[in-house]
Amino acid sequence: MAEAAKEAVKTAPENTKLVENATCTFCGCVCDDMNLTVDLDNHRITKAQNACVLGRAWFTEHKLEKRPFALIDGKEATTAEGVEVAAQILANAKFPITYGLSDTTCEAQRQAVAIADMIGGCLDTTTSVCHGPSGIAFEGVGESTASLGEIKNRADLVVFWGGNPAEAHPRLFTRYALMPKGMFVPNGKKDRTAVLIDVRRTASTPVADIFIQIKPGKDFEVLWALRALVKGRKIGADIEEETGVKLEVLEDLVQRMKSCRFGAFLFGMGLTMTRGRHFNSGALLALASDLNAFTHFVAKPVRGHGNVTGADNVVSWSTGFPFGMSFARGYPRFNPGEFTTVDTLSRGDADAALIIASDPASNFPKAAIEHLKRIPTILLDPRESVTGQIAKVAFTTATYGINTTGTVYRMDDVPITLRPAFESPYPSDEEVLIAIKNRVRELLAEQHRLGSPKVAQKVA
Amino acid sequence: MASLKIVNGRVYDPANGIDGETRDICITDGRITASAPAGAKTVDAQGMVVMPGGVDIHCHIAGPKVNLARKLQPEDHRHDVHPRTAFTRSGTGGTVPSTFATGYRYATMGYTTAMEAAVTPIGARHTLEELHDTPVIDKGFYVLLGNNVLLHQLLKDGKRDELREAVAWWVNATHAYTIKLVNPGGDEAWKGRRNSVVTDLDDKSDVFGVSPREIISALVQVANELGLPHPAHIHCNNLGHSGNYTTTLETMRAAGDQRVHITHIQFHSYGGEPGKNPTSKATEISAYINEHPNVSADVGQVMFGKSTIMTADAPIAYMLRRLGKDKRWVNADTEFESGCGIIPFAYQEHIYTHALQWAIGLELFLHSKDPWRMVLSTDHPNGGSFMSYPKLIRLLMDRQFRDEQIKLVNKKAIKNTTLLDGLDREYTLNEIAIVTRAGPARLLGLKNKGHLGEGADADITIYEEDPDKEKMFSAPRYVIKSGELIIEDHEFRADHEGRVLHVAPKFDSQIEKIIRPFFESYYSVRFENYAVADRYLRHGEKIPTASPVAAE
């Protein structure tokens, strides 16, 4: 590797550097084997060796845009001016919400949690709109799981359910779970059986040895039938009419699952965001647990955003709960459906919002977006976004993993330190959040001295 | 930094032979000093007991498995909230508190140091992040190496020098405090042979060709060769199984005359036939430890009520899952390094086995002839929360209370122990000071902790004397951490970020020539991204290792 590096530097144009073993934060795979060629003059990554098609775009299409450091009511401002306005909003809010967090570092996430604790607001992450149901299912049944390296080295049966890794997580196939050779599967894919279960054929279908197509919205029924079969119960042939899957197909799958040496489910949002939600995830987690009476079996939600797993971890260790919680009473409470951002906004409850590295205005339900437009919103994001257009204060920040270091957690809870490619003129999310936190603390202390919340200062 | 003078208190400082004498303690710049400058703030400890801050040698408070257990049990948090104050962050409690609540609650009990006892190497970075968010206390962790596949391969190939260097490399890469063995050699059968279980210390893995006994004896020796301030910390094979006391004795024998620490030994002191009801073998275990000064242990007392089983010993968690009412179960495999099992649990007075476990713990305390080597723990939160230490202290100090409690539990279990055979021992305050601070600090090799001599860290707890020892130890009047008055009149007056205690034994970097190819072939993270950078230590304190002893 070092030789290759020297070679690369030698042949590259001047003012180019090679960053080895960098980490891609585009998706939850968080691959840490990127070799980035960086053109320092133009602040561009010209080559991302080992990256998948998504990672290549993430790195090579990244450019430093000439954008204002902050926008206040759409007008250019400095970061410091933005911090002052943001802190005033948050310190004076009665029902502030903090949301996003899945595309930034754990260091920034920790600051966001500290602010939410201080201002007594709600705290929620994008988990609530992706694998939140899996988090709830986890609380109900637990989970038999493994780091991706265990799956790579041991799994001889891999079942992908409700996801399309070929297009959404390409290296889940090539680096972790299907193709790679491992200690106990020395021939890679040849030593594994790949099963894909979905409601339609996708780009992932061709890699599967067995494809099982089920009727949309019938995941739970299929999972429950499999649990029954695993436990030796009888299932009627009418299961086909209900789920679109022949009984023999289910029986064959059960046989394979019970007789494999190390089995793994890797499941996606096809389970969590369709009819049944946490019942679906719970049924799959329970099935994996049941199978441990016969062999070793694990299950793993395939997570989307680069550090959504970090957000789950940081919020959990700080509060005891993974997402959808409130500090309004001075201590953390957990209630998805009440404190989850979509619900809070749709009810019209919040009076200020701090959004970090997320774009809710582009993908939330209409009622939620309408309310977001009514309240002062503070946004931290490296890119322009729909939320940025409606924000009272929008900070431009450096991109994590490309411009800043920090910690991210892979979908299997393995933490990795980022190696930035080049510097950004913009501050990191962490730096902006620390500045906001410090100013909010001062303002709250002042309010405390005066004995009542200060009237919101008129802001430019 | 401010200076401080504590006057008129009755001082218990067993390491310096001070047993309840009235003395003044002076603090300057975070350390205990012979005198304090004029004008130093004075704390009047009249009618109070002054002890070094408590030191927990074995608990589970931070890292991947702890966080899974936190996430698993929202119901355990909601009834036990921890509101923020002007100085401190909010959090939640239960058997697995949030990080902030963990730090503050240790402090409110007068504990100022705690060691997280089981961290996978790949989870070290995560653990350090959590420890950073665990306020007030100083802390460190033990790194799991008893089921490390590469180490097994080196051992099998007879590469003893390489084994030692690789262990040193791993301790450095993770910033750990010592090495931990959990069910050594048991993981491969669990993960790779359809959840099967290794029960015999001489059962050679058909994959790696090494037996638990070989792993134990090699790693105990390596820890001593590296001069680690605390020896190999061992969770023996066969935890919780009837008849396992023979395994425990064999494990201690496998260490020869080398220093070794056997953890939560209560869980390893059972007689009886495997699969049938256990009996107590506390007398046999105590006798062995009393006679072997190279061995130390912490008890791992069971306390009735809610607990959370969380362990790198995945098979035992799976077995216990079938026994409890709560069917939730977490299994989490870590590549080449460890297994993990988590289940919510509750110990109940009327259940034979639970009552027996409780009684065995007490027997181990009461039969111990050397409190310096049989120290207090509940294996938090496995045997019970660290918040139950004050009640445990009362059980040890107050015979009348203990006898009342004995009457409340399963009688058949008590009959199978020695608790009713005139065991009238009551721990003195001096002995409590040994098993909760001076002893653990000495076993950990922390020369500046667990005592109040000149130069010691100014980690001090001041309790108001009370005949009810549970009440007394539940809420000290003052807690001083690194010379700072954190708790005054039972209330937080400041926040504090403790230090991370770690070791850095020297190693030959040539060992990377062996480790790197293994990573490149098998691990799912790059070798270059594996070792944890120093910045994750924040306020780190490197505890020196003894000069390395060359291998024979």
Explain briefly what this protein structure is.
With about 450 residues, chain A is α/β, with parallel strands linked by helices. Chain A has helices at about 1-10, 55-60, 80-90, 105-120, 130-140, 150-155, 165-170, 170-175, 220-230, 240-245, 245-260, 270, 280-290, 310-320, 340-345, 360-365, 365-375, 385-390, 430-450; strands at about 15-20, 35-40, 45-50, 70, 75, 95-100, 120-125, 140-145, 155-160, 195-200, 210-215, 260-265, 295-300, 325, 335, 350-355, 375-380, 395, 405-410, 415.
The CATH architecture classification of the largest domain in chain A is 3-Layer(aba) Sandwich
Query: Which fold name fills CATH's third level, the topology of chain B?
Result: TIM Barrel
Please tally the β strands of chain A and state the result. 20
Question: What's the overall geometry of chain B?
Answer: globular
Number of strands of chain B: 26
CATH architecture of chain B: Alpha-Beta Barrel
Folded structure, characterized:
- The complex is a heterodimer of chains A (460) and B (552).
- With 460 residues, chain A is an alpha/beta fold.
- Chain A has three domains: 2-60, no CATH class; 70-130 and 306-450, Rossmann fold (3-Layer(aba) Sandwich), CATH 3.40.50; 132-301, 3-Layer(aba) Sandwich (Dimethylsulfoxide Reductase, domain 2).
- In chain A, 39% of the residues lie in helices and 19% in strands.
- Chain A is built from 19 helices and 20 strands.
- Chain A has a nine-stranded mixed beta sheet. In chain A, strands 11-10-9-12-13 form a five-stranded parallel beta sheet. Chain A has a three-stranded antiparallel beta sheet with strand order 1-2-3.
- Chain A is globular and about 70 Å long.
- Chain B is of the alpha/beta class and 552 residues long.
- In chain B, helix 6 (160-174) crosses helix 8 and helix 13 crosses helix 14.
- Chain B is globular.
- The N and C termini of chain B lie far apart (48 Å).
- The mean pLDDT of chain B is 96.
- Chains A and B meet through helix 4, helix 5, strand 8, helix 6 and helix 14 of A and helix 1, helix 2, strand 7, strand 8 and helix 3 of B.
- Strand 8 (142-146) of chain A pairs parallel with strand 18 (329-333) of chain B, so a sheet runs across the interface.
